[in-house]
Amino acid sequence: MSTRRQKRVGDLIQEEISDMLQKKLEDPRLQQVTITGVEVSPDLRYARVWYSVLGEAKEIADAGAALLKASGLLRRELSSRISLRYMPELVFKFDDTWQRGARVDELLDQIAAESQAHDSSG
Asked: What is the pTM of this model?
């Protein structure tokens, strides 16, 4: 369970990284990246940054590599934008929530279609 301070710091980091991705970084691999959330450790030393990318596996892998490469720059820039004693180390994790949601929708549609086929044949 996160504290109010962890939540505030995470929200601020998410907002600033999103802004930097739009305005500061010019890497084309990061154009379709969306920061979906940030979880900060209780000691505020680590921040798990969740991101999503619309695209195929190659675009997802490329975006992950670009974020890893830019993590030092992002952390430095964050330290100038946010006043914290220690700037958390950024750990980027792919957020596949939308993909899992799409798969659930697909399965529900399949079940509905099979149910209709079963009802019309019986």
From this structure: 0.79
